[in-house]
Amino acid sequence: MAHIPDGVLSVPVLAGGAVIAAAGVALGLRLLDDRLIPRAGVLAAAVFVLSLISVPVGPSSVHLLLTGLMGLMLGAAVFPAVLVMLLLQALLFGFGGLTTLGVNTVNIALPGFIAAALLGPAIRASRNAAKRGALAALLGALSVAGTGGLVALSLALSSSSYTPVARVLIATYLPLMVGEAFVTAAVVSFLARVQPDALRPASA
Amino acid sequence: MTVIADPRLGLVTALIAIVAVAQLHGLPAATAAFILAAMLGGVTRAGWPLARRLVHVEGFMLLLFVMLPLTMPGEPLARIGPLSVSAEGIALAALVALKVSASVLLLAVLVGSMEPARLGATLHALHVPERFNRLLVMTARYVDLIRAEAQRLRESMRARGFRPRSNRHTWRSYGHLAGMVLIRALDRAERVTEAMRCRGFSGRYPHAAFAPPALRDWTASIAVAVTGLILLAADRL
Q: Domain ranges in chain A?
């Protein structure tokens, strides 16, 4: 749902997305030294696999994004990791698009990066399991809400005839927000108990 | 099976053609683009896998097709209760559908599916930054492996009577599944890093150089790219 295909968006939106994505990817790649590339690559593969599981929420089912969690584990490297996942989806499976790679990378990675930068320190420092779970749920919900808002914004900025669709689109993100919040809380609690180092970008 | 055997040319040609198609404004040009792309698909005898890719419409694309005719102001064609279906809305929905389908077809026909190592070598030849390329190859390599691992974990959950429903137990169980998959991924990354260092990895993969593209590939590539640009020019003039 977050992957906008080729042929929908206008040129200024595509170009703007590409510029922001390039800046994010450059920042992320600078942080990845040789020892950390396998870690980021294998984590991206794991998140890719996990996003294929369909999780029932109410009468519908959703596919998780887990970008807040990626922001927590990878920091700014979430940008190249998301771009890699999108490129593989486009080239190996034919989903998504080539011209929309930049916009889609920003829509998916940026909210996760920002939410993790804001909430990450408190989540790592928290010694209280309930508080940590609540913060992690907020992380998941915020990153999904951000992605929904950015996808709607990309459509609305491209053409005014998309605006009503964009409004309805935001509503379709509500079930995903619920699922993402609960699952992110469970993953973070699990990792905090089993391997707390996993919750920081560079464990090397 | 793709029209262009050389993966570098195929990728660049697909990019040019899709950029051109994505910017079409008129229905005639978009229809022509879709028919041409479908004919290319016919040439390669891609058949079912190609049709399946087309059927895979993203959730919000469906939303777009349903809502555009109802919400766009214009000449009403029919009324459904309080809603009116406008001709302009139908035209825009058709335009978007044609462009999206043509792009999907072009990508499938010109690039197809590549194995990870070949994709890495192709992007290396196209001067994609080395670190990004290494990240991509690493991810592509481990997706299948981790998918099998996650599948085993889900099977063992099922064997213990787990049925996914819309409740907190399900979400917590999936959270634990995700956590376990991530921990194993981190352990695997650790082992891979050690193994690479142990074998003297010096920060770059040795990619075999590609042979120069065949004349046939150049012809096909130029034909597709020029057709795309002509369509774009005809659409704008």
A: 11-199
Amino acid at B127: H
3-state SS, A12-52, equals HHHHHHHHHHHHHHHHHHHHCCCCHHHHHHHHHHHHHHHCC
Instruction: Report pLDDT for A123.
Output: 94
Cβ-based burial of B17 (10 A; exposed 0-12, middle 13-18, buried ≥19):
buried
Half-sphere exposure of B173 (CA within 13 A, CB side): 19
* Cα separation of the two ends of chain B: 35
**Which of residues 99 through 158 in chain B touch A, CB cutoff 8 A?**
99-100, 102-104, 107-108, 111, 113-114, 119, 129, 131-132, 134-143, 145-147, 150, 154
The beta strands (E) that lie in chain B are given as: 76-80, 83-86
CB contact under 8 A, B68 and A161: yes
Residue pLDDT, tens place only, B58-110: 666 777 788 888 887 777 777 776 777 888 888 888 888 888 888 888 888 88
DSSP B208: P
Q: Residue B86: what pLDDT?
A: 83
Residue of A37, A139, A173 to mutate for B, most B C-beta atoms under 10 A = A37
Predicted pLDDT of residue A204: 44
HSE of A165, CA atoms in CB hemisphere, 13 A:
26
Output the CA angle B205-B210-B215, nearest 5 degrees. 165
Q: What are the sequence ranges of the domains in chain B? A: 7-113+210-236, 118-198
Task: Using 50 as the pLDDT threshold, list the residues of chain B that sit under it.
Answer: none
Q: Are B110 and B120 in contact (CB under 8 A)?
A: no
What's the confidence (pLDDT) of residue B45?
65
Distance CA(B112)–CA(A76), nearest Å, equals 31
What 3-state class would DSSP assign to A98? coil
Measured between CB atoms, does B204 come within 8 Å of chain A? no
8 A C-beta contact, residue B8 and residue B211: no
Q: What tens digit of pLDDT does each residue of A97-130 get?
A: 888 999 999 999 999 999 999 999 999 998 899 9
**Cβ-based burial of A139 (10 A; exposed 0-12, middle 13-18, buried ≥19):** buried
Report the complex ipTM.
0.90
Q: What is the CATH number of domain A11-199?
A: 1.10.1760.20
- The beta-carbon neighbor of B179 closest among A41, A44, A194 is A194
